[in-house]
Amino acid sequence: MAQYNVAPMENLVEQFEKMPGIGHKTAQRLAYYVLNLSKTEAEQLASAVIDAHTKIHYCSRCCNLTDKELCPVCASQSRDHSVICVVETPRDVTAVENTHEYSGTYHVLHGSISPLNGVGPEELTIKELLARIAQGGVSEVIMATNPTVEGDATALYISGLLKPMGIRVTRLAYGIPVGGDLEYADEYTLAKALEGRNEI
Description:
Layout: H1 7-17, H2 24-35, H3 39-55, E1 57-58, E2 65-66, H4 72-75, E3 80-87, H5 90-97, E4 104-108, H6 126-134, E5 140-143, H7 149-162, E6 168-171, H8 187-195, E7 198-199
Parallel strand pairs: 3-4, 3-5, 5-6
Antiparallel strand pairs: 1-2, 6-7
Helix pairs in contact: 1-2
């Protein structure tokens, strides 16, 4: 029996399968969805992907994603620039912002220390954080890394670097489940964790 194989379709499915959390069947559904788009809609989708890829870069201050020199948080005069909330990913910034309880700024590490995965401090944006604090004006750093072994190790490592600088270092209270990710926590849990942060 001849195998039914349309190369462009297979390639589209393969590209979707590379995305996190997308299995073969979901990738097929997404591919069929794209095929059913009008030419204009398909071009808009392709343009949005290319725009995001070419225009979005890291904020020069906090390393979050932005399409300008500074992200909206760093550029805002209404934020408390004396407090920095350190998170692992840009998705974690969104999670904290959704609580509407935090008015400080952020610093995105783009990962956590994980020797088993070949990620050391030099692979993260720790030196950018230290340079930022060295400029003065920062009184507190909230370590909001995920409550995992890697997240805790990262928080302790950074805390050890900051304490000699006279910076108050706090950690989110454990309203966040151990082993969980900030992006999946609900707003109420995150708000409570922010309220009950502890010295580390």
